[in-house]
Every structure is written in C-alpha cells, then in structure tokens.
Amino acid sequence: MEIQVLREDVTRIEVEALCLGIFQGLREPGGAAGAVDRALDGALTKLLQKGEFRGRKGETLLLPTWGKLPARRVLLVGLGERERFSAETVREAMAAAVNAADRLSELSTVVHGAGVGGLPPEEAARALVEGAILGRYRFEKYRRSDERDAPRLERLQLVEFDAAKVEALRAGAARGKAVAEAVCWARDLANEPGNALPPEELAARAQALAHECGMRCEVLTERELEAEGLGGILAVGRGSARPPRMVVLEYAPEGREGERPVVLVGKGVTFDSGGISLKAREGMEAMKYDMAGAAAVLGTLKALADLEIPVRTIALVPAVENLPGGNALKPGDVITLANGKTVEVTNTDAEGRLILADALVYARRYSPRAVVDLATLTGACVVALGKEAAGLFGNDPDLLDAIKRAAEESGERVWELPLYDEYKELLRSEVADLKNSVLGRGALPPAGAAAGATFLREFVEYPWTHLDIAGTASDVETRLYCPQKGATGYGVRLLVRWIEQLSRS
Ligand code: BES
Ligand code: MN
Ligand code: ZN
Question: Quick one: which atom of ligand 1 is closest to the CA of 378?
Fold first, then answer.
C-alpha cells in the first residue's frame, strides 16, 4: 500500500473516502471533524445526537457526502473512551477502517491522536500506518483469484493542517510502513504450508531476503552442521527426508561491522508432527506455524535493513522438519549438543529446545551484547497465558526491562515467568547431563514453559531472554491486527522497537 502525508485542509481533499475518528460519547464534533460537519450541514452532529454512531472502539460508518465535499464519502471510525486512548487505539481504529473501506482503492485520513489525543505526531502516524497495513493483510496465495477478499485499498493518505507537524508525521509513517511490511513478510512466510516450506526452502527465503536488502547470508548444510557439532539440529532432522539447515543472516550497517552484535534466534521447525512421540491428530495442521519464531527474526532484520537502524544484528535460524521417519530420533536416545552436553531424549516432541540449544551455543562466537530467542516452544505457555502475551524468561534484569518497555511501546505483549534454579530438577537425567522433557504420566507435567526455558538457559553465556510465542504466533483475534486465522507475525514489532531503543542508548 502506498502511503502519503499531505499538508491540507480536510474539507478540500478530493478522494474516495475521508476517515474521521470519533470518541465515544461525543455530541458535537470539533477540529477536522467539526469542519466536515459544517460542510455537511450538521449531518455528523445529527448522527451522534441520535445515537446512530456511538464512537465505540472499532465501530465504523461509511456515509456519502452528496457533493457537499470534494471527498465522496466520509468514513467514521470509533476511538472509544477518550481517557483510554493510546497508540493501540489508533492501530485498532485503522485496522477497522481499512476493512470498512474494503471496496475502495484510496482513503485519506486525519491522524487520530496527533491533535486532541495527545500522542506525539510521529507515534500517532506510525501506529496509524501499522494498523492500516496489518489490518489489510490477507494470505491468499493459494486461493482462486476470484475468491479473494483482501481489501483493495492501494493508497492511504494522512492529512494534517498544521505544517509544523508534517515532518514528524512523515518520519512516523515511514517507520510504520517498513515495520508493518516486515510483519506481513513474516506472516507470509509462517503461513506457508509445510509441504511448500521445508528447511531448504526456509533457508532459500532467507537468502532471497538477504539479496534484496543487501545482507550477508550463510546456510549451513548437513556437512557443516556436522563439522560444527550441532548435534541437536542433526538429530531432530534425521526423521525427515528433507534435510536440516541453519541460517546465519547478518545485518551489518556501515561502520558497525566490528561492533558486538545483537543475536536473534528463531525456532524454525517447518512442521512439527512430534516425531516418534507423535502428536494427536486433531489440530496438528497448526504445527506448520512452528517456524514462526524464525519468520519473526528474519522479518525483524528486513525492517532493520529497510530503516537503516545502526545496530549490528545477526539472525540464527535452526531449521528442521520433525517427522517420525525410519531414521528418526527415538525416546531414550542420547545425543550430544554443540557445547558437548549430553541429552537423554525422553520425548521427541520437545524438539525445539534441542535445535535452539545448538543455535544458542553457536551464538557465543559473536560475543553478543544480547541474545533474544523466539520460539513456539510449549503448549504449557499457552495454558499459562493464552493468546494475550508471550512468555518472557531471561537471565539479565536490564535486558528483561528493555524487552518489557519495547512490548509496551509496540503493543506486542510479554509477561515474565520465573526461572527458579529449582526447575533444573525437572530436567535431571539418570543417564545424561540433562533430559529434554518432563514425563507426564496422566497429569500434565509441572511448569512446562519454565522447564523449556530452563533447558535453554543451560546453553547461554551472555545476557539473554527467551520469548515463548506458542500462543501469540497464530490465530490471535485481538491486538495483533490479524483479520484472518493464521500467522500473526508476532515479534517483529517488539524486536524492532527494542533494537531502535538500543540504537539510541
Ligand atoms: N511446537 C510445540 C509447542 C506448541 C504447542 C506450539 C502448541 C504451539 C501450540 C513444541 O515443539 C512441543 O511439542 N512442545 C511440547 C513439549 C513437551 C513434550 C515437553 C508440548 O508443549 O507439549
Ligand atoms: Mn514439538
Ligand atoms: Zn515444536
């Protein structure tokens, strides 16, 4: 979608529809809406006073202007209660607006929040563009073109009367566009079905991205995985005819090639059947999203490169397909991971931690300033938090604080869970250094999400946080502006915010 910022009076804009935000309980529109109301002979005031439009969050109403304005329609969008207004409200309003204007090709809008809402203009424009692009997203690659239902909107214009705000609005809109497009890129990748995206293809997509954005990308094949001792990735990969890979994607802004990087690790299980510890059949198709962490970290590098954020950042993606083939890893097998620790595999469905552990050890070579991993790691995290937040774990209070701040600002929620030393007991093995899962005979095993994080902690030697995105990665109805079931792209907005903050500190 094309985004423009224009300094103009809204009553002079010639466009298919003009979007105005209305707070709940408003009786008489002011500002831009007031000017439009006067041009329409008080039609908006009448609607509001009759209660035909209440301004509830997400409410929309498309009205003709009968030639009284150069804009052919007015699209009212509810902003909810004025006291609860935030950047989140702006995203929500615009996601609703683009869907209400789905048959139109262009929309002009006032920048909700940049005036009476009290948001800094840059933040308001960023949130507005994010909401519009995210809310418009559909995954329709595999549908017949005549059955597609994505909004047709091609152009979004932000209109501001005050010339002093225009520059900040342009900057915010450009950031919002780059970040939201990176989220959509991640959604597209994670929405690919398992048959279309084996580990090799996931790696090829990363290479194509690197080519487009001028980044360096290296893909480790089995020989190199062997040479590096990445025994977890190899062991999990053995059950599939489609070989494992590890992607190393580097964004090194000019002049920063030598600095200690941020490393982002994304779980790239292109399909998780559970392996020999086979999952139940119901809902197994959702395990194509088990590479959503990979999609998020790759999408983040795309946004960083597009915005030229001056922070060296490396994405590591261990990519495997977890299938129960004749050569597959079995319960009881003992494997050796990249740092020499041995693991008794008690459940082949706890595969994510095995491949992530290798990648976390691999990250040490960069002396990273911080490492964040994103993984659809445990069903237990979904039990704990539902789809409302990702589980957050870590070993460094400052890093945890920074991630929480980025979550607040981006709207992608996290909730910290503990990493008590006592959880290590859960992973004690009689035959190896660790076991990979807690056996649940009958009852659910305790602290499943923390057990996964505790396992990973055994492999890190730097400031680190782990985000369990099992709940937030797919099929979320609110807050992530994902109008369809499917991948949400969760993590891109959060990580970009965090790295932007690092670039300022
Ligand atoms: N990919 C799954 C976790 C998952 C579950 C993601 C539901 C999204 C939705 C992961 O590999 C897994 O199977 N975890 C096991 C761990 C257990 C065997 C210790 C789980 O959660 O059951
Ligand atoms: Mn699994
Ligand atoms: Zn998995």
Answer: 21
Q: How many folded domains does the chain comprise?
A: 2
Q: Which domain holds residue 472?
A: 192-504
Q: For 116-146, how does the pLDDT look when each residue is reduced to its tens digit (9 = 90+)?
A: 788 999 999 999 999 999 999 999 999 988 7
Residues in the ligand 1 pocket, defined by CB under 6 Å: 272, 290, 347, 349-352, 376-380, 382, 437, 448, 470
Active site residues: 279, 353
Letter for the amino acid at 79?
L
| Pocket-testing residue among 271, 329, 349, ligand 1, by greatest number of atoms within 8 A of Cβ | 349
Q: Quick one: 286 and 349 in the same domain?
A: yes
pLDDT, one tens digit per residue, over 55-73 is: 999 999 999 999 999 999 9
Residues 210 and 170 in one domain: no
Question: Do residue 165 and residue 240 come from a single domain?
Answer: no
Average pLDDT, rounded, for the chain: 97
The confidence score (pLDDT) of residue 322 equals 99
Q: What's the CATH number where 175 sits?
A: 3.40.220.10
Which is the closest atom of ligand 1 to the Cα of 269? 1
Same domain, 218 and 138: no
Residue where one domain finishes, among candidates 153, 185, 217: 185
- Atom 5 of ligand 1, residue of closest alpha carbon: 379
- Whole-angstrom Cα Rg for the chain: 24
38 in the same domain as 53: yes
Domain ends where: 162, 185, 208?
Answer: 185
Residues 404, 255 share a domain: yes
What are the CA-CA distances from residue 167 to residues 2, 80, 118, 310 (Å)? 18, 28, 17, 21
- The protein residue with its alpha carbon nearest to ligand 1, atom 14, reads 378
Task: Enter the pTM of the model.
Answer: 0.98
Q: Residue 104 pLDDT more than 70?
A: yes
Ligand 1 closest atom vs CA 290: 1
| Residues 126, 220 within the same domain | no
Ligand approaching nearest to the C-alpha of 452: 1
Mean pLDDT of 25-32: 93
pLDDT, tens digit, 9 for 90 and up, residues 275-324: 999 999 999 999 999 999 999 999 999 999 999 999 999 999 999 999 99
Instruction: Note whether 71 and 175 are same-domain residues.
Output: yes
Q: Give the number of whichever ligand sits closest to the CA of residue 448.
A: 1
How far does residue 376's CA lie from ligand 3's centre (Å)? Answer: 6
Sequence-ordered list of residues with C-beta below 8 angstroms from that of 341, at least 6 positions apart, any chain? 357, 433, 434, 458, 459
Alpha helices (H) in 393-447, listed in sequence order: 397-410
CA distance linking residue 468 with residue 395, whole number of Å: 15
Q: How many angstroms separate the alpha carbon of residue 505 from the centre of ligand 1?
A: 37
What is the distance between the alpha carbons of residues 501 and 495, in angstroms, rounded to a whole number?
10
Name the amino acid, one letter, at 106. E
Per-residue model confidence (pLDDT) at position 440: 63
Instruction: Name the pLDDT band for 442 (thresholds 50, 70, 90).
Output: low
